[in-house]
Write a structure and sequence with these properties.
Elements (H helix, E strand, L loop, with lengths): L2 E3 L2 E3 L5 E9 L2 E8 L2 E8 L3 E3 L5 E3 L9
Antiparallel strand pairs: 1-2, 3-4, 4-5, 6-7
């Protein structure tokens, strides 16, 4: 179970082997491999998105104003 300390969450993963970071349309996935399996952390933006060209941009409402 994650441990919270003053606004931070600490997750201890014993027997850590390797990690990968992937760019996604919603943000990033961080995948951590341990001897016990893989853990995936999905980091999602609430006001940004990745465009068709792969670059990050702000989300814009229909009226052209930033959400």
């Amino acid at each position: 179970m994650p441990k919270k300390i003053k606004g931070h969450t600490i997750i201890k993963l014993p027997k850590y082997n390797k990690f990968w970071v992937y760019d996604r349309s919603y943000g990033h996935d961080i995948i951590i491999n341990t001897d016990y399996g893989k853990t995936t952390i999905q980091c999602m933006w609430n006001d940004r998105m990745r465009g068709d060209n792969g670059r990050v941009k702000n989300k814009v409402a229909i009226d052209g104003k930033k959400r």
